[in-house]
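Treating backbone geometry as a discrete language has practical consequences that deserve illustration. The sequence in question and its structure tokens are set out directly beneath this paragraph.
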Amino acid sequence: MTVQEILAGVRAAGVAGDVVGPGEPGYDLRRRVWNGCADRQPAAIIRAEGVEDVRRVVAIAARMGCPLAVRGGGHSLPGLSTCDGGIVLDLGAMNGVTVDPDRAIARVGGGALLGDLDRAGAPHGLVVPAGVISHTGAGGLTLGGGMGWLSRRYGLTIDHLAEVTLVTAAGEVRTVDADRDPDLFWGLKGGGGNFGVVIEFVFRMKPLDRVETRSWTYPPGMMRSALLALAAAAEAAPDTLTCSAFVTPAGLSLTVLQSGTEIDAGAWDAFANLAGPGADGPRYTDFVAFQSRGDAHVSWGRRYYARGGFLERLDPGTADTITDIATAMPTADSEVYLIQLGGAVARVPEDDAAYSGRAAGWYWIVQPLWDDPAQDAACLAAGRAGAKLMAARSMAVNYVNEQADTDPSIASQAYGATKFRRLQALKRRWDPGNVFRLNQNIPPE
């Protein structure tokens, strides 16, 4: 199919939302996604206004056999929310969030961002544990698993998923939960966008009472010792505390968040030895503000590569590896990121969801970050080399959301052999033609 034929076919389908193609007003703005490396030229971009638009776009993509990119927040690291010569289905207008405070339930549109969800819950003292950057799409994050600052206390985002409504490859609108098609529901909790276009999520919310944060900074010469001090302190931390680290060529920044009905001053004692040589960083008591503190650093249009993985523990050899990788990064903003897991995440049985890695104590991301396309080769090479070193120290399973490459081994390795076979069976049932293939793909064969 040519670009002109695809665009004509989309327009003939009678979608209600705006449709733009190459050279038309608004096209260059609409085709932009978060990662500046993903500079693609789709044949048609449709900003869906509702479920009927979604059904029609899925149907025409299946009939034409052209690539179909589903864009929620546009945050896909490998640029899978856009494509060359295919269709982009933009859910950005379907971004409503409705909170029922009496039932502690949130209904979230497929195009909503994490910030939309955080802000909707805050007036009611409620939250869905999710990611750490507020302009991330809630949909893509959830379908991969969803981890962040409140995961140790409350679990992953998928652990609070009550119901999902999606459009399947056959154009059917289905609502699934633990009772209505529990097998598909299992696969949606970590299986990515392989099974359909999710138009609404229903989450069980949790109380978000008080939060307090502290942070410390260290020069390069103290990075290794600070990482080991962090590891020791984190071992003793209650589930109400979560630790995180950003390791860059310029030094190390550690942040700890505590949440609870009451802030336990004594819980900070384990971190007394983390006081860095410089002044403490800014402290937050407002969670919504804290969630957006990194938004400008990882802003839209910058260039990103990232690969991540799970660590059972942060040991001295791993601290050495992290320090070496960060020191060798080609740009000042590049980083190795760590976030503590365990707690409530580990208390959910491994077989509860497609997501794998419940036993991990930490998650890491090696992430070069740059702005000049002339640095692409150096940054990509550094990212891949660093990730390879970290992978050698990591668990076998992985997290599909933080992988900037798309080679076929990623999905099969991420879930392990047993879960991957179960996911393939689901794929054969719900998408035998692999219409939804722009993801960390689970092929039906």
